[in-house]
Amino acid sequence: MNNTVNRAVALRISQLLREKKITQYRLAMNSGITHSTLKNIMHETIKDNLLSTVILIASGFSMTASEFLDSPLFFEENLDI
After folding, report:
1. From CA 12, how far away is CA 9, in angstroms rounded?
2. What is the pLDDT of residues 5-57, one digit of tens each?
């Protein structure tokens, strides 16, 4: 079963939170997005994640958007587009 893009973004954030040992709140603060926006992304209540939001989240992890998206989660064959 493939993931939606929104699910893939939420899974990637979860993966990186564990790897970098930071909380959702800290990521929101580091990213400059609101904690409620991040919670909505994680609960997949946002219909479409904007690239600008993904860039901010990547920045919160001290990485580029390319590094954030460099995951099998985002391979086209693993997504329902």
Report:
1. 5
2. 888 999 999 999 999 999 999 999 999 999 999 999 999 888 776 888 899 99
- Evaluate whether residue 55 is within a structural domain: yes
Name every residue whose Cβ is closer than 8 Å to that of residue 51 and which is 6 or more positions away in sequence. Answer: 65
- Structural domain of 34: 5-71
Report pTM. Answer: 0.79
Q: How many domains is the chain partitioned into structurally?
A: 1
Nearby residues of 58 by Cβ (< 8 Å), 6 or more positions away:
64, 65, 67, 68
DSSP string, 21-74: T--HHHHHHHHTS-HHHHHHHHTT-SS---HHHHHHHHHHTTS-HHHHH-SGGG
In angstroms, rounded to a whole number, what is the distance separating the alpha carbons of residues 2 and 16?
20
